[in-house]
Amino acid sequence: MLRGLRGPLWPLLLLLLLPPPGTWGHGSRARPKEGAEEAGEAGSWPAFQGLRERLRAAGALCRRYWALFSCRVWPDGCRQDEEAPARPLGLEADLRVRLHGQHLARELVLTAARGYLELPRPDKALALSFHGWSGTGKNFVARMLAENLYRDGLRSDCVKVFIATLHFPHHKYVDLYQEQLASQIRKTQEHCHQTLFILDEAEKLHPGLLEALRPHLERQAPENPRAKSPRTIFLFLSNLGGNIINEVVLNLLKAGWSREEIGMEHLEPQLQAEIVESTDSGFGHSCLVKENLIDFFIPFLPLEYRHVRLCARDAFLSQELLYTEEALDEVAKMMVYVPKEEQLFSSQGCKSVSQRINYFLP
Length: 362
What we know:
The chain is α/β, with parallel strands linked by helices. 46% of the residues lie in helices and 9% in strands. The protein contains 16 helices and 7 strands. The strands form 2 sheets. The protein has a 5-stranded parallel sheet with strand order 2-3-4-1-5, sandwiched between helices. It is globular and about 60 Å long. The model is unreliable at 1-17, 19-44 and 64-84 (pLDDT under 50).
């Protein structure tokens, strides 16, 4: 049987011959110290992170060639849809290692996604609404979720991204947009057993478009108990509520609380009140909010200097560039910090950090 393997399948065999990752180098001595990534410590961590990225790439390559291999050996059981969803085994590690300063978002997203994907027959789409300032990680988490659910991440045919001002810019065409949005959702669900819809700038969506989403977010009674239920996740990304989140966090920090002690009980009442009472957006007055069709409102906290340094470190590593602690400080100092007196929070979060490291290229 193996004699007939040709073309791109040979890398699978090479990957299968590699020793287990835990046997490389000096084993556990290469692991970073607990919490080292949040403290910004140097040492073995950059090397570990670089190795981790290479292992991630090797794992993705191995999965792709295994899919090709299994399709040739067991063609009857092979899905022709190359975007068949994968189990989000790496989501917890990604959120822990790559997402900085967002302990609430990390816990809520992981709990909600894992609980939903483990349901044998979900009768409702999972709807998560991300709120916070620009650059705090909302799009980043959406991308991580896509990468862990689908082999091609955001490029998957089972993932659709809508940006309010780009895809639905003119209110006079809202009827046409409603038809287009409903058609996209329906066709994607017909093609995929598991779908992900990301609606960016959700606070700018026309109320008519939010109303058009109602049938897709309401609880459904299964027509055929034996039919396989499609799984659908909606992510709403919004700057709405960012100011009240920052205000609550600032007051708690001034009162002596540590960032990691801040819980949902401190933020949820004020955030939901801000969303509902906002006069600049129809999002809080929509059926999605009033009828409790959104499962979780997830706050993204403002990022501090130490978090910007970690984002800079990740940007250097992603481009396989060497860096110094002084370079990380220089990048972090380029950002503007607010409020004016405390200068505690980066006004842009980690946005534009990856572009700023260009100043340090040889």
